[in-house]
Please model this.
Amino acid sequence: MNAADILQIIIFCGLVAALTPVVGGYMARVFSGERVPLDRILGPVERAIYRICGIRADREQHWTAYALALLAVNLAGMLALYALLRLQAWLPLNPAGQGPVAPDLAFNTAVSFTTNTNWQAYGGESTLSYLSQMAGLTVQNFLSAASGIAVLIALIRGFARRSARTVGNVYVDLTRAILYVLLPISIVTALFLVSQGMPQNLDAYTVAATVEGAQQVIAQGPVASQVAIKQIGSNGGGYFSVNSAHPYENPTPLTNLVEMVFLLLLAAGLTSTFGRMVGDRRQGRALFIAMGLMFVAGVGVACWAELQGNPALIAAGTDPAGGNMEGKEVRFGIVNSVLWAVATTAASNGSVNSMHDSYTPLGGMVPLVNMMLGEVIYGGVGAGLYGMLIFVLLAVFIAGLMVGRTPEYLGKKIEAREIKLAMIAILTMPVGILGLSALTVVLPAGLAGIRDGGPHGLTEVLYAYSSGTGNNGSAFAGFAADSLYHNTTIALAMLVGRFLVILPVLAIAGTLAARKAVPASPGTFPTHGGLFVGLLVGVVLIVGGLTFFPVLALGPVVEHLMLGTGIAF
Model:
C-alpha cells in the first residue's frame, strides 16, 4: 500500500469523523423538538401533514402502539409497491414498455425496499418503469430509512426517560425524519449529482450507433433522485443493474467520494445524536470509536488481500503487479473499490462500485463478515446503532457477571427481560443466514441457483442470505437469485432480519423508559472509556466468531488455502 492509497483512506475517514458531530447535533435537535433553521420553511408543511392525516402530535404512544403503527405503515407501503410493480405495464411513465413484474419477483422486491434491504434480483433499467422507480422504490427508500431512525429514537428515549409510559409518536418521528433530515439532504445531493453528469429526466431510452456500426440502447430516467436517497438512507440498490459501477450512476471520482461518505454519514451521525439525547456525549463518542475500530480493521484486511493479488496467480508466478483488479473499475482502482465494499456492507447499504464475486477469498470475506455481525459497524440508518446498543446491553451484562454486580447502562438497571429480548434480536442473524443457507444447499430448488462449485459456491449462498437477513442488499454475483425459491426465501430472510429485531428493540425501549434511574456509585462500570470500547468490540467479534467461523472456514478460508495450491472454482 503506497502513500496515495493511505491518503485516500485518511481523507474518507476524516470526512466521516468531521461530519459526524455536525449531522448528529442537527438530528438531536430535530428529534428533541428544538428549533432548527428549516422550521420557518418546513414547520407549516409539517403541521399541515398532521392536520390532513389526523395526527395528534402531542399524543405519545406506548411501545406496543408505536410498534403496531410502524408495522401498519410498512405493510401499507409494501402492498402499494407490490401493486405498482404488478400493474406498471398499464400505468404511465413507461417509455421502454416494461411489462408487469412476475408475482414472486414483485413480492421479493416489495419486501426488499420495505425492509431497507434493496436486494435486486433484476436489472433496474430492463425491468422497471420510471413510475415504479420514482413512486415505488424511491418513496420506499425514504420510508424505510425513516422507520429505522424512528425505532432508534424510540430506544434512545427509553434510555433517557425516567418512569415514562411512552416512547414517542411514531407518526411524528417518521414525518420529522423524512421532512427535516432525509428530504433536504437528498434534494441538495441530487442537484450536485446532476451537476456532475448524472441523468435526471423522463426521456425515452437513447439508441446510439457504436464505432463498429452496431446499435446500443442507453437507458435514461430519474437517476439522480434515487441515487441520492439510496446512499443517504443506507438503502442501496441501483437504478442500473451494475449499480454505482455504471458511469451514469457514478460519473466522476468526486461523485464516488461523495457517495461513499454518504454511505456512513447519517449512520455515523446518529452516534452523536445518541450522546446528546441521553445527556452524555462521551457515550456517543465511545460507540463511534468502537464502530470505527472495526471498520478500519476491515478496510485494512480487505486492502491487504486485494493488493496482494490472486493467490492462484501468485502461486503460478503470473500475478500481475498492482494487485487484484478483476471486477474493479480502472477509474477507481483497488483502494476506492475496497473502501466502498467495506463501507457498503458495514453501513447496510448494499450499493457497489465493483463486483464482490471477483474479490480474493479473504478480500470478499470482509464484506461477508460485516453483514454476519449484524451490520453494526455504523450499520443502516438507525438500524446499525440500535443493533449495536443490543450488543452494549450484552457487554454490560457480561461485565456485571464478572464483578458480581447488577449490570447498568446510563443509570438503568439491565435485568433479565432486556437480556432475553436482546438475545432474540441477536439470534435472528444465525437463524436467517445459517438456517436458510442450510436449506438452500440441500434442496434441489436451492441448488439450482448455485453456478459455482466448491467453497466459492457456498460463499455465494452465504453472501445472499447474509445480505438478505442483514438488510444489506449487495450481491456476490454468480448466483441465480431470480427464481421462485430464492425470491421467497430471501424475502423471508429480509423480513426476519428487519422486524424480528425491531420488535424486541421497541420492547426494550418501553421497559427502560418505565424504569427509574439509579445514581452512579463507585462500583458502576464506566461505559465511555477505552476499557468499555475494547469490551464492546470483543463481544461483537466473539459472538460473531463463535456463530459463523465454522461456516466461514468451509467457504472463503478454505478457498483461499486451495487457491494457493492452484485449485480454482
